[in-house]
């Protein structure tokens, strides 16, 4: 029987750039440890381990399968191209490894369902890598959005995430290749926008989505910029824009009948140890209409650990409960991943079909 106090031992499958950040998070998390990394060559795996301060006890493998075959590994983090997710996430689950999967979770919901089925059949925990949800700022914001006196009823969300890539990125990055990460900007940065919208709506799926004019595709047909609107039966509306071709922006605004909340860094906070948001409640103008009464207020939330570390800590806590207490995997995480994927799939369908309305069927 495993030592209940033993940290969750992670193997990392692939040496993508994002794995640098998550490796650091695993090393900082009090209930996790870096145990192995696998690449397509032992040399690359060893170089990655050395560059990212893996402990001397960590193993560097020349294949992904070797990580999965290591009986000492409890969980794997998968930062592979999206087209490889279903293969390797299913393989990990079959080897009884808990799965922390980078977003977007799959090319489409049908592929994701195969991952969920494998995880459920093998009793392993699944979680996607949407890090901002684990920052304590998120829980503070949720308190405000749930306050009927301060925020009221959610009516609208506007979300935008974009950054300006280099010519080399446009030519060579996997996120511009249809056979690797064919969802492009929609899958990469659009995922965060969609998640922020669904999160605010308590993961009630919209009735339908419509892509808006302004989509930009590369020569291979991969999305570099797109916009969409989401619509609910009760009248809620959300819009988002995602792009690889614009200056860095990570804005989201939640609009209620009584209050409004703004974030300007909702995916990656300006600073690692703190994050802010602004609220306005029952806003109006002064007598001369020269200013706001009352003025919006800024709120700052401190954290001792980076948000990606808090994600690893929560994932590891769930895994430890399964290992030590016989707990069942928490179905919350695959459920919200699937709803995000379903919405993304509908937006993609609308983008490639002349901005037609696409209904979402769960």
TrEMBL record:
Q: Which InterPro entries match?
A: Gfo/Idh/MocA-like_OxRdtase_N, GFO_IDH_MocA-like_dom, NAD(P)-bd_dom_sf
Q: Which Pfam families match?
A: GFO_IDH_MocA, GFO_IDH_MocA_C3
Q: What's this protein's family per the entry?
A: Belongs to the Gfo/Idh/MocA family.
Q: Name one GO molecular function term.
A: nucleotide binding
In terms of Gene3D superfamilies, this protein maps to: Dihydrodipicolinate Reductase, domain 2 (3.30.360.10), NAD(P)-binding Rossmann-like Domain (3.40.50.720)
Protein name per Swiss-Prot or TrEMBL: Uncharacterized protein
Q: Where is the GFO/IDH/MocA-like oxidoreductase domain?
A: 147-261
The segment(s) forming the Gfo/Idh/MocA-like oxidoreductase N-terminal domain are 8-127
- Domain of life of the source: Eukaryota
Q: Which PANTHER family match?
A: OS10G0403700 PROTEIN (PTHR46368:SF4), PTHR46368
